[in-house]
């Protein structure tokens, strides 16, 4: 029986008792029944008032939670909007920068270029021996004075920490480039990645894009070489990210080939010789990219 039905029953009982009392003298028992019915009504009323209070309290709590969740949702929506705008800005900036680099590549920016002739015989022989001692990880192009390391053998995926096994070969390369026969040459370290975007949040915090990862890997390699005989003034670093693949990124094997670190030997001071021409090319290319 619900509280409403109980209340109705008690009211009917009271009506009957009152009618009986009006019609004649009420007995003591009838009076007690009226008093008991009244107490029951008061208890039911108190219970209903408590139920109403509890319901209102729950409703207020739910309303507060709803308002709080709505505020949190609004903050997250704003954060998403801000991050989207920031990402769009970064992508636009990257596209403009890439355009500048491509324009520079098409212009004469001075005497900075890979070797067009053979290296000195002593240095060439040392690098040939070095490559033959590391056939699975190093490829040497004597015609252009370039060496290529397979990135997977130098770094773990998404990392810029040089593996111990790769550090040994980089140390030996540093010793070769620190010798007298190599003093007439500087080194440009160039990092490349595949086209798989950075996915893990922890990796993104350190390397937001493949471009960042490529440059950070170049810096890590340069640091190892510097610790083993090559002056920092002789080392430059670059990173092209996924934008200079040597094969299509259409299979795991090809993506592994595109993940690489290249080293170019150039005549010492070549960057300084071409500095003014390079600055002019950068200025002109940047102006063109805004048109």
Written overview of the protein:
The chain is α+β, with helices and mostly antiparallel strands and 291 residues long. It has two domains: 3-69; 111-273, OmpA-like domain (60s Ribosomal Protein L30, Chain: A), CATH 3.30.1330. It contains ten helices and five strands. It has helices at 3-23, 28-105, 121-133, 151-154, 164-178, 201-206, 210-227, 252-258, 270-273, 275-289; strands at residues 138-141, 146-150, 185-192, 235-241, 260-267. Helix 1 runs antiparallel to helix 2 (28-105), helix 3 (121-133) packs antiparallel against helix 5 and helix 5 packs across helix 7.
Pick out its properties.
single chain, 60s Ribosomal Protein L30, Chain: A, 10 helices, alpha+beta, 2 domains, five-stranded mixed beta sheet, 291 residues
Write down the Rg. Answer: 41 Å
Mean pLDDT: 81
| Straight-line N-to-C gap | 83 Å
Please tell me what the overall shape is: rod-shaped
User: What is the domain tally?
Assistant: 2
**Major sheet attributes:** 5 strands, mixed
* Unreliable stretches covering 5 or more consecutive residues: 107-112, 273-291
The fold-level CATH name of the largest domain is 60s Ribosomal Protein L30, Chain: A
DSSP strand tally: 5
Helix fraction bin: 55-70%
Number of helices: 10
Q: CATH top level of the largest domain?
A: Alpha Beta
Q: Can you tell me the CATH architecture of the largest domain?
A: 2-Layer Sandwich
The helix-strand sequence is HHHEEHHEHHEHEHH
What structural category arises from helix and sheet content? alpha+beta
What is the strand arrangement across the widest sheet? 1-2-5-3-4
Strand content bin: 5-15%
According to CATH, the homologous superfamily of the largest domain is: OmpA-like domain
